[in-house]
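If your schedule permits, I should be very grateful for your opinion on a structural question. Kindly check, if you would, that the fold set down in the tokens agrees with what the sequence suggests. Thank you for your consideration; the sequence and its tokens are set out here:
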Amino acid sequence: MACFYIYFISSLPMLHLGMKPPFSQEHFLELSRQFIPAEDYAILAGLPVAQGYENFQTKQETLQRWVAFDTVLRNELAKLRASRKRMEPTKYLRPGQYSDALLAQIALNASRNPAPPEAERFLDQQRWNFLEELAFGHYFDLDVLILYAYKLKILWRWEEVRLADKEALLEKVLT
């Protein structure tokens, strides 16, 4: 398979936090399959989600940095939640990652927000900002597509929230 990173990446729409996703995850992966080498497609199709970080191994530096960032952020949130319930946080922490003062402050700021959806938006804004930082110096390579895919995951998550049947969810909670 020929490598058409420049063409493919140039044809992708620009993403902004809060926008409606331009296409589904399946469509993005199908487009990717057409334009990038099979080994790079395998990495893109197998991007880990938070539940799979513990067993994830890669030599791809951008993925390593993203997994480390998101794991530490989730650990800091777990520490805060556990301390509020006067519980020991160690059983909720993911191994292998160390604390970070900046991420601890981000978690604290999010936890201080009285509205859970706004706290989640704040956390996703911080994730988005980190993805933007990781993109620095990358223009037409696999790293750009990995970062694009994670941004799409954030957008798809918020689209699911937007499209959820809120009345049915409320009824489910109340019964």
Summary: The two ends are 54 Å apart (CA to CA). The helical segments are 5-11, 25-35, 38-45, 61-84, 101-111, 116-135, 142-163, 166-174.
